[in-house]
Each structure stands twice: as C-alpha cells, then as structure tokens.
Amino acid sequence: MWKRTIIKNYTAESPKISGFSSRSGRLNKELTGNCLNPQVSNNLFIHLNSTTLMVLPMEPEFTKEELLNLQEKKFKHTIELAFKTKLYSKKFKEAGLTQADIKNTEDLIKIPFSSKQDIVKDYKAAIADYDDLSVFHTTSGTSGTPTVVGYTNNDVEVQTTNEARNLQTAGFKKGDIVIQTASYGMFFAGLCFHEALRRFGAVVVPAGKQATSRQQADIIRFYRPTGVIGIAQFMLKWATLYEEMFGEDPRESSLNRGYALGEPVSEDKRKRIEKIWDIDLRIGYGLTEAGSGGECEEKHGVHWPEDLSLVEVIDPETDERVAEGERGEMVYTTISRTGTLAIRYRSRDSSYMVPGSCSCGRITRKVMPPEFRLDSLVKIKGTLTSPFAIDSAIFSYEGVRDYLVVVSEDASGLDRIDVFIDSNSLTPSQIESLSDRFGGKVWFNPSSVKLVEKDSIPVIGRKGKKLIDLRAEGDYGDELKTFLEKYGESSE
Ligand SMILES: [Zn+2]
Q1: Does residue 364 sit in the same domain as residue 389?
Q2: Rounded to whole angstroms, how far apart are CA atoms 364 and 414?
Q3: CA-CA distances (angstroms) from residue 222 to 177, 227, 461?
Q4: Do 308 and 179 contact (CB within 8 A), yes or no?
Q5: Residues 392 and 482 in one domain
Q6: pLDDT given for residue 382 in this prediction
C-alpha cells in the first residue's frame, strides 16, 4: 500500500523521520523510518510495508514560512559544499569571502556570479561530491559547447522529483499513458521525464526522438496515449501527418494533454496546438544545471521549485537585481544538489518573475518561460531580433503549419531575409501581407516570402531550428542545402 505523506522535522543530522498524512493532517507515528538520503527533500513518499523511501513527487504542502526556513537550511549546507569545490572556493577567495561572511540567503548578493563558461572551462571544478557521482549529462548545447553536469544519486532523485512535481502541476496523473519524445542520451530531459512519469504511476511510452515524424505519428496512433511530452513545433507537425496517414481528425485521437519543452512557445502557437489536437497544452522550462518548473492551470508562468533552487533576476548590463515583474537575466542557485553546483549561475535566459500570488494556491513563485536567450538574439538589418518574436509573428497567421526563416548576406553585403511558409490555406495575397505583419512585430521586412510544398521544410537540429543565420559559421546539413537549391534566392 502506498500512502502519500508529508514528512516534517527531519534534519540532515538525524536520519530518523516522522510524518503525517497529507489527507488528515494528523501526525502518523507509523510513518517513522530511515531516511536514505536526508539531503533530498523534506517531502517523502513512504512504502508502509518496507523501509523503502521515495521522494514525494507532489507540490510540497509547506507554508511560506516553512519554505523560507527550508531554503535557509539548505542554502547553508550548499555553501559549505561550495567551499569544497575548486571553482567556487576560488571565486569566494577572490571576493574576500570566508564561510562566516555567507550566513544566510540575504548574503547571496555578496557572492560573485558563475557562468556556463566556468563549467565549460573545467566541469570538474564545479562538482562538490566527486566521489559520489552517479552520471554525467550535458546541457542541450542550445548555444555553443555543451556544458557537462555531474549528478550524484541525490541529484538524480532531486531532479526526477522536481520533474514529477512539474508534470503533476501540469495536470498529468496516475493512469495517464504518455508518449515521451524528449531524446534519451546525453541530455537529461528524456531520462528524467521517463522516470518522473513512472514516479507517480503514469505509463511511459519511451518514443524518444524518432527518425521521422511519420514514425512518431504512428506511435501516437498505436498506443492511444492520453498525454504527450515534446517540442511544440513537432506536435503541430504530427497532427498534420496523423490526419494524412490515418484519415482521422487529430481531435478525435486519444490525446488530451501535452507538455511542451525545449523552446519558447507563443500563445498563438499554444492555441493552435490545443485546437488541432483538442488538448490542454502546458509549458515546462528548465536548465540541466539548475532545475525546472511547470505550468499550472493558470498557464501564466512556471512554478519554480524554490525549495530546490533559488532564483534571482538581474540587469545583464549592471548586474544589479531588478524589481519583481521586471525583465532581466535569470540567475539560479541550486540548494539541493551535491554534484555540480550552480551558485548565482547566470543562465543567459531573459525573463521575469510573475508578480503576485497564483490562483492555483501553490506558494512557489512563478518564472515566465524565457522568450529568448541573451545569446540567441540575431542582428537583422541592424536590430536585435529573437527567434521567438519571429515565431510569434508567423504563428499569428491561422493557416501556417511550418516555416523557416533564412538570413543571409546579398552581393552588396546587406542582410537578406527569406521566409518559407508551409500552409494549406493561406492565399497569395495573405502571404504578401505577411511581410507587413513582420514589420509590426519584428521591425524588418523580409526580402521574400514563399509558399513551399507540404512537409518540405527540413528539420534542423534537435529542436527543429526555425531561424537560420547563414552569415554565421555553422553546418546545417545537406537537407537545408537541397531545400535552398529548390526554393532559395538562386532558384528564382
Ligand atoms: Zn499556479
């Protein structure tokens, strides 16, 4: 028999724990046992017939005060660990900080920032418990060299719990059959979602990244899943294929919920996916280095696991903290990990904290999923533009199925922007007016907008890159070359 409990009053020093039932709120003496890993969380899941303990995959039911106390306790422990690492001890020393100078989270502001470059330079330097490592993962490599993150067993538990909580926040539940399409391998996301789903009793179909979208649509038809985890753009693509391959309206499929990750999703795109599949689509956001959050029913920001990871927002120019609700660079500090630590880690993600409390009743604060990474901005015709702004502009058009924007340099050295659209319903005059729409949202007019054959747009990169900058170094593969030979400027 499994029973959900909230465990209180345990400390790292005393592995004996006691808990009370979350339903009755009463102390339950039966629920006393050994905590296998006291650093994990103060929320545990107990198997009453054995001593097995698992982390409770629920939104913790602590009060704000309890959360703050927990943060202080975990922060203190993390700083002790950080002093043992090569990277952070060096940073502390350079800043003239001793352990006595960092007493509580208010002292966080004294600590120097860390960055992806620090970890890239020497990934071992940021690891606290090197002897306890369990697995290495890399970040998705959204920009440049992948960052190696070492997880101890504790960290794997923490992140799996974190993800299980996010998925449940997003409405996934026991009994759901879920097609998990985040890739398995060097990235943690696939494995983590896989384990997180199992954690609360959902059934996983570990599709991972399939070679073709047709295979993915096939899997959706065959297993009759109730949920899907994956990249939003691909969910759209599968819907078109589903209809084409099986002659069935995707709305009639078994799917009723989705969880989108890995890239920003505009509201227009969310609505499109929700309508085409008739599902409830929630968004998840996270970093391998620092943690992750998921959207609740408000669909306005992800609840950040503040008991596992602290969050700050700074002005990327002045490095000063900004007011709640103001946009800036997201900075994270892990307070539950023992492998790779992130201490005031600059994510390069541009976003803000959603002010006020959430109507869902959760007390954790919300981070708006970032619209862009500070490194992903592309200068087009002299103005910095984000791929997200282009995506929003294009998807505000009802009939768009897929698209690709290619930025290049023309013979006279000026920026050239070619937009390729896959649509079954846009008329040539609407395509024409898309140029104007662009002008309103992203401050440049494309050099050309062309309709292309259905499904002809190549999938570039793991996440299906939509903005290709040919002016920058990079190999985008033969598929793009063939595509541009057919539709590009020189084909005219
Ligand atoms: Zn909420």
Answers
A1: no
A2: 48
A3: 12, 13, 27
A4: no
A5: yes
A6: 77
Stronger pLDDT, 464 or 420, i.e. the higher one: 420
And the tokens for 92? 């502390």
- Which among 370, 405, 439 is the end of a domain? 370
Q: How many domains does the chain have?
A: 3
Distance 358 CA to ligand 1 centre (A): 5
CA distance 312 to 162: 19
Neighbour count for residue 402 (Cβ, 10 Å): 21
pLDDT score recorded for residue 490: 59
Residue 395 CB contacts under 8 Å (≥ 6 apart), including other chains = 266, 268, 269, 272
**Domain boundary residue, one of 309, 343, 370:** 370
Ligand 1 mean position, distance from CA 362 (Å): 6
Tell me, yes or no, whether 272 and 128 share the same domain: yes
- The SS3 of residue 104 is coil
Residue-wise pLDDT for 298-351, tens only, equals 999 999 999 999 999 999 999 999 999 999 999 999 999 999 999 999 999 999
What is the distance in A from the centroid of ligand 1 to the CA of 166? 11
**Is the domain of 206 the same as that of 183?**
yes
Q: Are 115 and 143 in contact (CB under 8 A)?
A: no
Asked whether the predicted pLDDT for residue 482 surpasses 70, the reply is yes
Residue of 404, 379, 368 whose CA lies nearest to 267: 368
Most confident of 175-179, 378-382, 446-450: 175-179
- CATH classification of the domain holding 405: 3.30.300.30
DSSP 8-state assignment for residue 81:
H
Is the pLDDT at 246 greater than 70? The verdict is yes
The answer on 414 and 366 residing in a single domain is no
Tokens of 68: 């703050």
CA of 454 to the centre of ligand 1 (A): 39
Q: Rounded mean pLDDT of 424-444?
A: 72
Closest CA to 87 of 147, 158, 155: 147
Cα(482)–Cα(6) distance, integer angstroms: 57
Q: How far apart are CA 206 and CA 128, in angstroms?
A: 32
CA of 364 to the centre of ligand 1 (A): 8
Helix crossing, 267-277 with 387-395: angle to 10°?
Answer: 50
Domain extent, residue 16, equals 2-56
Ion ligand 1: residues, Cβ under 5 Å: 296, 298, 358, 360, 362
One domain for residues 480 and 405: yes
Pairing of strands 345-351, 302-303: unpaired
Q: 307, 63 in Cβ contact below 8 A?
A: no
